[in-house]
Amino acid sequence: MHRLFAALLALAGLLAPSVQAGPWARAPGEVFLSYSHNLATTADALAAGDMRMEAFSSLYGEVGLGRRLTLGLDLGRGTYTDEALIFLRRTLTRPDATWQVALDFGLGQRRVEGLDDSRLARAGLSVGRGFGAEALDWIPGGMAGGWIGLEAVAIRDLTRDTQRWKVEATLGLRRSDRLSVMLQLMAEDWPGNDISYGINPSVVFRIREGTSLELGARTSFEENPRFGLELGLWHQF
């Protein structure tokens, strides 16, 4: 799994990675890649003057298969863990529908340092809607359009018979063809832990056709709150 992850990260670096998940079906043959790197630490560590931060990297990819089917890949690597999931998403609504709805199902593997690997099963539901500039007349300065999305994902650890889930709501606003802002609200539940909540604002710059750069802040409210920064690169072709 280490070699697979490293190879895909190298490929992402060559292609200049990618884009956001959602219920919208990819056109046949269309590819989206997204690479992100997150540095975070706890509130206690910051209060003590400890500036060491934990790193987490992720690679997300989609390819359109046609017939409203999209194949997805979601890889993550942290200090002590690796995880890889592959899934198939079916968009249930027609392309011209105001609201888009999709279901996805997948399988994967998780490695935790010092433990045996786990087999994973994933099920997800996503809902989204795009809107034009006329819906945003109330925002000063003018916006070119935007989108809202809601995604719920449950991941079952088939090896250890446990389950975790995550719900994420996203509001995106396009200031222009080159600049967008996003706000993500997240709730996540891991076995043995209390539910954590996150607020993740970010700015997305289109640096060339098909390629965008994301700069964001990451805040997670749990027993010991965590704060971090994220750099992401998206590429669609």
Share in helix: under 10%
**Lateral arrangement of strands in the main beta sheet:** 1-2-3-4-5-6-7-8-9-10-11-12
Q: What number is the mean pLDDT?
A: 88
Structural class: mainly beta
- Count every beta strand, where a strand is a DSSP E run of 2 or more residues: 12
Strand content: over 45%
Principal-axes geometry comes out as: globular
Distance between the termini: 27 Å
Low-confidence stretches: 2-19
Q: What is the rounded Rg?
A: 18 Å
Question: Gist?
Answer:
By secondary structure, the protein is mainly β. The protein is built from 2 helices and 12 strands; from the N terminus they run αβαβββββββββββ.
What does this 3D model show about the protein?
By secondary structure, the chain is mainly β. It has helices spanning 2-15, 43-47, and strands at residues 31-42, 54-66, 69-77, 81-91, 99-112, 118-132, 145-157, 162-174, 179-189, 196-208, 211-221, 226-236. The chain has a 12-stranded antiparallel barrel.
